[in-house]
């Protein structure tokens, strides 16, 4: 079982920046991936960015060049630096952990609200 605690959401004007953090605790081992997903009202939860504990990162096309995901394996913490924010980035952002090898069930954080005003 892995617990995830997110922080860093808030209200920002378009063009501004925010940094999200997610600290993981519990049974963390093996090849695993941590990342961020987001869900806007009335829409499905979509991938934003992920990163493995080996450093391999993946981004949604909509955030490439604006968002940067990073990870501190010693602290079991993943970060999402969001720059040049747009109103369409407004959503609840959820942290996710999943062990790849050996396989494990995903864990989710409670979510943090990001609101970008125009």
Q: Helix segment count?
A: 0
DSSP strand content:
over 45%
- Radius of gyration, in Å, reads 14 Å
Which spans have pLDDT < 50 for at least 5 consecutive residues? none
Oligomeric state: single chain
Helix content: under 10%
Mean pLDDT, to the nearest integer, reads 96
Major β-sheet profile? 7 strands, mixed
Count of beta strands: 11
Class from secondary-structure proportions: mainly beta
Task: State the shape.
Answer: globular
Short key terms for the protein model shown above:
118 residues; mainly beta; seven-stranded mixed sheet; four-stranded antiparallel sheet
Give an overview of the whole structure.
It is a single chain. With 118 residues, the chain is mainly β. 0% of the residues lie in helices and 58% in strands. The chain has strands at residues 2-7, 10-13, 18-26, 31-39, 46-52, 57-59, 67-72, 77-82, 91-101, 107-108, 112-117. Strand 5 and strand 6 form a beta hairpin.
What's the topology here?
Blueprint: E1 2-7, E2 10-13, E3 18-26, E4 31-39, E5 46-52, E6 57-59, E7 67-72, E8 77-82, E9 91-101, E10 107-108, E11 112-117
Parallel strand pairs: 2-11
Antiparallel strand pairs: 1-3, 3-8, 4-5, 4-9, 5-6, 7-8, 9-10, 9-11
């Amino acid at each position: 079982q892995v617990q995830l605690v997110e922080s860093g959401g808030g209200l920002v004007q378009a063009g501004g920046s925010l940094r999200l953090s997610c600290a993981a605790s519990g049974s963390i081992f093996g090849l695993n991936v941590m990342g961020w997903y987001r869900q806007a009202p009335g829409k499905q939860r979509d991938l934003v960015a992920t990163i493995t504990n080996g450093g391999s990162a993946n981004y949604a096309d909509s955030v490439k060049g604006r968002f940067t995901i990073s990870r501190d394996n010693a602290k079991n913490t993943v970060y999402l630096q969001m720059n040049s924010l747009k109103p369409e980035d407004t959503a609840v952002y959820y942290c996710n952990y999943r062990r790849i090898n050996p396989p494990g069930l995903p864990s989710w954080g409670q979510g943090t609200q990001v609101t970008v005003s125009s």
